[in-house]
UniProtKB/TrEMBL annotation:
<feature type="transmembrane region" description="Helical">
    <location>
        <begin position="12"/>
        <end position="38"/>
    </location>
</feature>
<dbReference type="Pfam" id="PF07690">
    <property type="entry name" value="MFS_1"/>
</dbReference>
<keyword id="KW-0812">Transmembrane</keyword>
<feature type="transmembrane region" description="Helical">
    <location>
        <begin position="77"/>
        <end position="98"/>
    </location>
</feature>
<feature type="transmembrane region" description="Helical">
    <location>
        <begin position="171"/>
        <end position="194"/>
    </location>
</feature>
<keyword id="KW-0472">Membrane</keyword>
<dbReference type="InterPro" id="IPR036259">
    <property type="entry name" value="MFS_trans_sf"/>
</dbReference>
<feature type="transmembrane region" description="Helical">
    <location>
        <begin position="292"/>
        <end position="313"/>
    </location>
</feature>
<dbReference type="InterPro" id="IPR011701">
    <property type="entry name" value="MFS"/>
</dbReference>
<protein>
    <submittedName>
        <fullName>MFS transporter</fullName>
    </submittedName>
</protein>
<feature type="transmembrane region" description="Helical">
    <location>
        <begin position="227"/>
        <end position="248"/>
    </location>
</feature>
<keyword id="KW-1003">Cell membrane</keyword>
<feature type="transmembrane region" description="Helical">
    <location>
        <begin position="104"/>
        <end position="125"/>
    </location>
</feature>
<feature type="transmembrane region" description="Helical">
    <location>
        <begin position="381"/>
        <end position="403"/>
    </location>
</feature>
<feature type="transmembrane region" description="Helical">
    <location>
        <begin position="356"/>
        <end position="375"/>
    </location>
</feature>
<keyword id="KW-1133">Transmembrane helix</keyword>
<feature type="transmembrane region" description="Helical">
    <location>
        <begin position="319"/>
        <end position="344"/>
    </location>
</feature>
Length: 428
C-alpha cells in the first residue's frame, strides 16, 4: 500500500472518529438540555422552541455554509467551526457557574451550536472526495450514516444518564473535552490529499454571486435537481411517521412507554444496519435505482403501519410487528441516503460541493416544521388511517414520477440502451 493510500485509510477512521464525536455531542446536548427545560419549566412549548432552535438555523443558513466551504480552505472551515463550538459550550459553562443556567441561555447556545456544527458538517461532507480514494467513497459515506444512526440511539441514552447522575457543569465539561479531542484529530488531516483548493476564478466571486452560482449549478443538472426535490418530498412525508408513531403506539394502541422506547430505538438500529451493509458492499452501480427501490419500500411500509388498527393483533404481536416495521424503515432510509451521498460525491465537482450539500441541507429541513404542523392537524381530524394511507400512496406516486424512466435513463443510460442497438445485435 503506497503512502497516499495509507493516508486515505487514516482519514477514513479519523473522519469516522470526528463525526462520531460531533454527532454524539449534538445528540447528547439536545436530549439533555431538552430534559432540563422540561424539568425546569414543565412546558412542552419551551421544549418545542428548543427543537426549533436546532432546525431553523440549518434551514436558513445552510446555503451560506456551503458557500463558505467552497470559498475557503475546508480544513480551516472545519477547525474554525469546531473551535467556535468549543467556545460556545465553554461560554455556557462560564455563564452557568456565575449566573446559573437559564432557558434563554440554553436557547441561544442551541441555536449557535447548531450553526457552528452545520458549518463543520457541510465542510466535512463536501471534503470526502479529497480525504479518501475513489474506491472508498461509498464506505466513507456509509460510515457517516452509521455514525449518525449510532448517535441517534446512543445520544439520548448517554444524555439521560448524564442528566440523571451528573451536575450540568460536569456534563458541559465532558462536552468541551470531546470537542477539544475532535479539533486535535482534525488538525492532523490533509484536506487536499486527492484534490487542490479553490481556483482563481472562484476567488473573484462575491458571496451572493457564489451562492447564486450554486443554485444555478443545481438548476442546470437535472439529476441533482431531482435529488434535491426528493429530499424535500421525503423529509415532508417523514413527518407523517415522526408525528404518527407516538400518536398511534402510545395514544391509540396504548403501548407501554418502555416498549415504545425499544421500538423507537430499533428505527435507528435499522439505519445503522443499512450503513454497515453499504460499508462492506461493493460500490452501487446504479445509485438512483437504489433510491427508487428504497423509497418504494418506505411508502409501502408507511401504509403497512396502520395494519394493527385494522386487524386485531395481540399485544406482544403488535410490539414485534412494529419492531420489524421500524427496522425495515430505518434500513430503507439508509438505502436511500447512502446512494444519494455517493452519487453527489462523484457527480458534483469539488468547486460546487459545499454549496450543493448546503442547499440539500436546506431542502432536507425546510419543510419539516410545516410537515409537523400539517400532520398534527391531520392526525387530530382524520385519524391515523385517514392520514397514513393517503400519505403512503401519495409518496409512492411522487416517487414514480420524480424517478420516472426518462430521469433514470439520463442518470444511468446502461439501464435503457437504445432500441436500434438491440435490433442491430439481433442480426449480427
Amino acid at each position: 500500500m503506497d503512502v497516499k493510500l495509507k493516508r486515505a485509510t487514516y482519514h477514513l477512521w479519523t473522519f469516522a472518529f470526528s463525526k462520531f464525536i460531533s454527532s454524539f455531542g449534538n445528540s447528547i446536548y439536545v436530549f439533555a438540555m431538552s430534559l432540563f427545560i422540561l424539568t425546569m419549566t414543565g412546558s412542552a412549548m419551551n421544549f418545542a422552541i428548543n427543537m426549533i432552535c436546532t432546525i431553523l438555523p440549518r434551514t436558513i443558513l445552510a446555503p451560506f455554509a456551503g458557500y463558505i466551504a467552497d470559498r475557503f480552505p475546508k480544513k480551516g472551515v472545519v477547525l474554525s467551526s469546531q473551535v467556535v463550538s468549543l467556545l460556545i459550550v465553554s461560554g455556557l459553562l462560564a455563564y452557568t457557574i456565575t449566573s446559573g443556567l437559564s432557558v434563554i441561555a440554553i436557547y441561544a447556545t442551541t441555536a449557535l451550536l447548531t450553526i457552528s456544527q452545520m458549518f463543520t458538517g457541510v465542510a466535512f461532507t463536501s471534503s470526502i472526495t479529497r480525504l479518501v480514494d475513489e474506491a472508498r467513497i461509498q464506505k466513507a459515506t456509509a460510515i457517516n450514516q452509521m455514525v449518525v444512526s449510532s448517535s441517534t440511539i446512543g445520544g439520548p441514552i448517554i444524555g439521560g444518564m448524564l442528566f440523571a447522575f451528573s451536575p450540568i457543569q460536569v456534563f458541559l465539561v465532558i462536552f468541551i473535552i470531546a470537542f477539544f479531542l475532535a479539533v486535535c484529530v482534525e488538525a492532523t488531516m490533509d484536506f487536499t490529499l486527492y484534490g487542490s483548493e479553490r481556483t482563481k476564478e472562484e476567488k473573484k466571486e462575491n458571496m451572493w454571486q457564489g451562492m447564486k452560482a450554486g443554485f444555478l449549478f443545481i438548476h442546470q443538472q437535472p439529476i441533482i435537481r431531482t435529488i434535491v426535490g426528493m429530499a424535500l418530498v421525503v423529509n415532508f412525508f417523514t413527518g407523517a411517521l415522526l408525528i404518527g408513531m407516538p400518536f398511534i403506539l402510545v395514544e391509540t394502541l396504548q403501548i407501554d412507554t418502555r416498549h415504545f422506547g425499544i421500538i423507537e430505538g430499533i428505527l435507528a438500529g435499522g439505519a445503522l444496519l443499512g450503513g454497515l451493509y453499504f460499508s462492506i458492499k461493493k460500490d452501487v452501480v446504479f445509485p438512483l435505482m437504489n433510491v427508487k427501490q428504497g423509497l418504494l419500500a418506505f411508502s409501502c411500509l408507511m401504509t403497512l403501519f396502520v395494519l394493527p388498527l385494522i386487524v386485531f393483533i395481540p399485544y406482544n404481536g403488535i410490539v414485534i410487528f412494529y419492531s420489524m416495521v421500524m427496522l425495515l424503515i430505518g434500513f430503507s432510509i439508509t438505502y436511500v441516503n447512502t446512494p444519494i451521498g455517493v452519487l453527489l460525491q462523484k457527480r458534483v465537482s469539488d468547486q460546487y460541493k459545499g454549496r450543493v450539500f448546503g442547499i440539500l441541507e436546506t431542502g432536507a429541513t425546510a419543510l419539516m416544521p410545516l410537515s409537523f404542523i400539517l400532520y398534527g392537524f391531520m392526525y387530530d381530524f382524520l385519524g391515523p388511517i385517514g392520514t397514513l394511507l393517503p400519505s403512503g400512496v401519495l409518496l409512492l406516486a411522487v416517487t414514480l414520477y420524480l424517478l420516472r424512466k426518462k430521469i433514470m435513463s439520463s442518470a444511468h443510460p446502461e439501464l435503457h440502451p437504445p432500441k436500434t442497438k438491440i435490433v442491430e445485435n439481433m442480426y449480427m
